[in-house]
Amino acid sequence: MDINKKIVDDFVANDVSFITTVPCKQLAGVIDEVEAREGIYHIPSNKEDEGMGLCAGAFMGGKRPAIIMQNTAIGVTINTLATLIQYYRMPLPMLISYRGELREPVACQVEMAVHTKALLAQMNIPTYHFHWQRDVEEFDNILKYTFMCNKPVAILTDANFWGGYGDQ
Amino acid sequence: MIRSEILREIAPVIRDQLVVCNIGLPSQELHMIDDQPTNFYMLGTMGLSSSIGLGLALAQDKTVISIDGDGSVLTNLGTLPTIANNVADNYILLIIDNGSYGSTGDQPTYAGKKTSLAAVASACGCDNVIEVQDRDLPPVLQKAIDDRKMTVIVCKCDSGNIKLPVITKDPVVIRDRFMNAVAS
């Protein structure tokens, strides 16, 4: 199964047509797929809170948005999640690379990984963790859930899900 | 002129446009001067007026004016390359540059010192950047609306605030009213 294609197929099937991204090595394939796909406006952002502002505007303009980013960004988007996305009650699927989990080669990434789920829980953000490739089968349901409840929803995707970094 | 005087001057110009208004005193002033369903008031999240406005402009065809401040643009300086590289000809970024953080007590910003936001916007690749003095803004803003070319306007003015009440409208009401105006 091509998980990059499956993820973007699900975005398209759920009418998500405005996607902002901040890159991560794990996300390179899915970002390429977003960029290549007709019917999706791909707008890279320089920082994740900026990206959430873009998504908020696109939502109010009638588009279904999404953000693709790394879990380190939770550290810079707490205020935006609380005072914009949650306060104004907007839906926002957040496809997040979960750096610092199993099969992570870079030690520093673990430092934010250990806070990631706790911060999301503190924010009352529904959170899903994709560890096996088959977990992607839930993605379609998660998108439907997000736009049903008008909340930010986190999908954490770890290195094992993306296939790891080779021999480790 | 101070910001509230500028907002009074441009209220007739922006009344029929979609406006995303910056957090704090700018939103409170616009709300008091000329509350419209086409106004989206930011109650939090400093720095994102330009980003919200750009996302809105890219998602639909009506003209969108983001009213921002020099301090807020400095907070989210990465917005300018994003604007430059995602041209939306229905988008105007109006930076009211009074050289200070007005809502927090008029502490000076770097835009009031050596940093030129107009030069920064140009260097970021924004094509139509206009720096204008406060009293000259209304016709410049009207022309930007009429031209339908993405424009960044930096309006230089004095720092200073008026006393006025906070916005007590519920955020979901503000957002719902605004979305109905966008869709109408």
Your description of this structure?
The complex is a heterodimer of chains A (168) and B (184). By secondary structure, chain A is of the alpha/beta class. Chain A has one domain: Thiamin diphosphate (ThDP)-binding fold, Pyr/PP domains (Rossmann fold, 3-Layer(aba) Sandwich). Chain A is built from 7 helices and 6 strands; from the N terminus they run H-E-H-E-H-E-H-E-H-E-H-E-H. A 6-stranded parallel beta sheet of chain A has the order 2-1-3-4-6-5, with helices on both faces. Chain A starts with a helix and ends in a 6-residue tail after the last helix. The model of chain A has no long low-confidence stretch (mean pLDDT 96). Chain B is globular and about 40 Å long. Chain B has a 6-stranded parallel beta sheet, sandwiched between helices. Chain B has a single domain, classed as Rossmann fold, CATH 3.40.50. The longest helix of chain B is centred in the last third of the chain and has 13 residues. Chain B contains 8 helices and 8 strands, in the order αβαβαβααβββαβαβα. The mean pLDDT of chain B is 97. By secondary structure, chain B is an alpha/beta fold. Helices cover 42% and strands 19% of the residues of chain B.
